[in-house]
Amino acid sequence: MASSERSAPLPDLWLKAAVVGSLWASVEIIAGSFLHNLRVPLAGSLLAATGAGLLTGAHQIWPQRGLLWRAGLICALMKSISPTAVVLGPMIGIFAESVLLEAATRLLGRTTLGYAVGGALAVSWTLAQKVAGFLITFGLNIVALYVRLVEFAAKSLRVSFLGPLEVLGALLAIDLLLGVGVALVAVRTGRRVAATEGLPLAGGPKTEPAWEGFKLDARQRFSVALLLVNLLGVAAGLLLLDRHPLWAALLLVAGFTLWVGLRYRGALRRFRRPRLWIELGALMLLSGLLLGASQSGGRWTWNGLREGLEMIVRAWLIMTGFAAMSVELRNPRIIEWFTRRRLRGFSDALGVAFEALPEFASALAQQRRFVRHPAVALTQLLRHADAWLETYQQQRAPRVVLLAGEPGQGKTSLAAEVARQVQERGLVVGGVLAPGLWRDGERWGFDVVDLLDGRSEPLCRRDAPLEAVAAGPFHFLAEGLRFGREALSLERLEQAGADLVIVDEVGPLELSAEGWAEPLEVLVERWSGPMLWVVRRGLVREVAARWLRTPPVVVDVGQADASAVAELLAVRAVDAAAGQPIQ
User: Is 0.90 topped by the overall pTM?
Assistant: First the structure.
């Protein structure tokens, strides 16, 4: 038995990563907006600690190698995907936190120490990334400004022990302690959740419509060459700032900004925010006061203002260049290249994550005790994620096996043999077979056979009345179609206690909303057991896209073994009858 690689179901590891990543993204979206809007101090560290706690707790339930960095990758893309530019900072931060936690658990094992070290590294990354971001954006002058600002604050407050390194050390210590504390709580909470048996969600999981991929502006044109041009533009501007007069750098940055604004619509909307202009103005004033005062004994100088202006121009150049490169990084060719590099299942996993997002966002909104009782809230969220996954697996398992082949290759004969062997196992097989009729060496028509009782009716003939439904050289008889639809009706199958449904075949007639199309719609939505559909090889994709929400198992009739197919379907039928997820 062989199955198509393109129709393979989503790997279990990616599925679980999608659930964890979606849960983390819901926290980033809801709690992140809340903390930042209220200007809560150390908001970035609190969000990083929450993410580390979710990852650590989830890893106690699903302790699989590679889960953490995959969940981080999915969360980063979920937080940053939008019709405009990708926000690189949050993407890098979220993914780096997951990689650090993954690395710690691989080096030190899935032990309490491993998670504690991983949590400390993940949360402290927030400070490291912020420092690196300031250096990249404003250059080394920001270091001098920071030193002068701390010295000014220490002198004003008359705190002799306060210094630049001491401030950074204190912030780092807070992050490290926060990361360790969250990890210890999450380990205990996650193990407690893993030890209890979860229950599927009542009413099934709330889901979004199927993810359709990256939402791109249809007018946007991408170019790998322009990605390099934008990178060179940033490099040229930095070179001018370091080695040439300021006015030359100003001209280049102004021209580069005009180019980006015209080429990438909406990429510079960040510059419309009043808060950004207030921050840049404050930077200019502080530079003139603190840097100038340090050079002239307390007086303002042009050199201080000039250094502040250089930092502003540099920041403007970096933000403009990153905005342009963020758009070009959404190039479908670049995305496809990355998703093919050892990331099989990534796109499908991202789709599952978006489906789960409304459920987790709703669950998070109900956790009003997150601040006062974080362990209790974490327990509820992890249980909710576990329940969502179990329910999703039950409802979205690949219930359909497609038996694919060319006309006349023996699809119906193989389906009949599979039905016989499944029946020998004591299971009830319903549905229809369509054996062919031959005359003078030519296929003359088909009959339809009800597998529940063996009765049959003529289905189509070459010489049927012209008013019959036509498909290719055959005309389908109204009585045969009615007979087959009755055999495939959900009511008849449930009354007979059917364990397996066979549909022979699903082809052009069904794709045009005729034939067995109507009962197929009902079976896909309401039948919980396995099904075997006979399909022409060239129509596999079209049939799967038309009726199935999850990839089916595809069996090629030229390589199939009837016993193996019968065993697969019998096991799935027993699982479905017992209310277990179909494997």
Answer: no
